[in-house]
Amino acid sequence: MKSNIIFAAALALAPLTVTTANAQDTTAGAAEERTDAQAIQAIHEEWADLIAEKDSAAIGALYAEDAVLMAPGEATVEGAPAIEDRYRLIDTAAAYENERAVGRAIAQSRIPRDEIFVTTKLWVQDAGYDATKAAFRRSLDRLQLDYLDLYLIHQPYSDVHGSWRAMEELHETGTIRAIGVSNFQPDRVMDIVSFNRITPAVNQIETHPFHQRVEEQKFLIENGVQMQSWGPFAEGRNNLFSNVTLKGIADAHDRTVAQVVLKWLLQRNIVAIPKSVRPARIAENFASFDFDLSDEEMATIATLDTGESAFIDHRDPEAVKGIAAWKFDT
Ligand SMILES: NC(=O)c1ccc[n+]([C@@H]2O[C@H](COP(=O)([O-])OP(=O)(O)OC[C@H]3O[C@@H](n4cnc5c(N)ncnc54)[C@H](OP(=O)(O)O)[C@@H]3O)[C@@H](O)[C@H]2O)c1
């Protein structure tokens, strides 16, 4: 398999959704913006080829084990077999305190660096121009990498503009291939777009059948930002895996609820990063491509939307206060 196709499988799941035109085309940063958008567009087109070929490679992300997340610095490298299996998109974060473990897993895997797509995230305590540059360097060192594929601002708080300017510069030097945000609602995305040169390539936000964010997706598409789903299974909340509606559709296709949810995201052109630590489920989640949901089934799933987060309201002052108080060894 061509390395760039494996790479395509990493960002994955959203053929032909990134628009190259956007509101900043007249600014000095337009060239960089187009570069990002076109790169992602190319990834998506190659991904579309993979689907056409019915290649089963790569959905989702590798996460170091939950145990690793709980034991910073003492991690095993249980992630390595998953990388050697078929995972190619690795989504981690300074705040998960598992970058060292992920770095070891990558180093011990047999997959060449250019066939893996690595995302990590900047935590709020490192917001601001200088702190972001220093935090990024520490992340890169922990990951044992000399460049990063995607760097996200993890939360929409504190000096995100200072952070963004630092990230723009790191992107321009080639140390970060693409820059983006996470947990940004449309007004926060527009704030970044309006006052900076480079539009975020990605917004990683909670998206699952109970929180579908249809209007937000339209906004992101209009502004050339790729939507990426964290918590695609809502971490099992609201009894997602035994939901009668989803189960009925799954049974009709002789599939599982997890596979239906991932296919539903794929058909909405949303990148998904499902997490499982179990090999059987990792394989199950990979096998989500070779069937189609009908328009009627998509419409049925649309009725499950509650319009609310299953986890957190990022506009709740108590949530902001809580996140601001979380400190990590970043
Ligand atoms: N940017 C952010 O602020 C943010 C916030 C939260 C999460 N994330 C990232 O998004 C990733 C995914 O989200 P998430 O882990 O929160 O939630 P998720 O992927 O919706 O759910 C993960 C849960 O689903 C289970 N699961 C996975 N595949 C399954 C299957 N086929 N059948 C039944 N159960 C299955 C997993 O259990 P097992 O592992 O036991 O299989 C785990 O308990 C995370 O790893 C995290 O890194 C980002």
TrEMBL record:
Leader sequence residues: 1-23
Gene3D superfamilies: NADP-dependent oxidoreductase domain
Entry keyword Signal: yes
PROSITE patterns per UniProt: ALDOKETO_REDUCTASE_2
Keywords, in A-Z order: NADP, Oxidoreductase, Signal
Top-level taxon: Bacteria
Alphabetized InterPro entries for the sequence: AKR, Aldo/ket_reductase_CS, NAD(P)_OxRdtase_dom_sf, NADP_OxRdtase_dom, NTF2-like_dom_sf
Pfam families: Aldo_ket_red (PF00248)
Domain NADP-dependent oxidoreductase: 84-304
Family: Belongs to the aldo/keto reductase family.
Record protein name field: Aldo/keto reductase
UniProt organism field: Paracoccus angustae
High-level lineage: Bacteria, Pseudomonadati, Pseudomonadota, Alphaproteobacteria, Rhodobacterales
